[in-house]
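Design request, tokens follow.
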């Protein structure tokens, strides 16, 4: 299943790229499930991000590795690939694209995921959409001058 969301911000590409750090990552975490950042190496190839998701009655570990990272004149991107996922996911690939957009930047989240059951892919879609839509005002607050 694929999911794509885009957010336009006023900050230039280089500034947005510098802002993709552990502090931003923690701001982007939605209220539920609460996320504890266990490890954040960065957004370069080979870096690892490790999280603990707290679902109240149980916790799940999520580990992703940055498998790709590239910079071209009008775009910077990196891909995190799930290596250890919560029980409800069997595959996770998230491409974070930062695209020059006039004087600002378009932040595009391109997610591909799978669950153990195709019907669960569809049931999870609105939840994941909401989780990533939650990021839009945070991106604006962090990267827009008036934010």
């Amino acid at each position: 299943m694929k999911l794509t969301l885009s957010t336009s911000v006023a900050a230039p590409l280089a500034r947005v790229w510098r802002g993709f750090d552990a502090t931003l990552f923690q701001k982007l975490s939605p209220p539920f499930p609460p996320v504890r950042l266990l490890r954040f190496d960065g957004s370069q190839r080979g870096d690892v991000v490790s999280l603990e998701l707290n679902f109240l009655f149980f916790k799940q570990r999520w580990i992703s590795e940055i498998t790709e990272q590239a910079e071209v004149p009008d775009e910077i991107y990196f891909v995190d690939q799930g290596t250890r996922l919560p029980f409800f996911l069997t595959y996770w690939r998230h491409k974070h694209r930062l695209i020059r957009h006039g004087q600002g930047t378009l932040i595009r989240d391109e997610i591909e995921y799978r669950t153990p059951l195709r019907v669960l892919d569809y049931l999870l879609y609105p939840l994941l959409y909401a989780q990533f839509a939650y990021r839009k005002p945070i991106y604006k607050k962090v990267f827009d001058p008036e934010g």
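Comment from the thread starter after seeing the answer: thanks! The mean pLDDT is 93.
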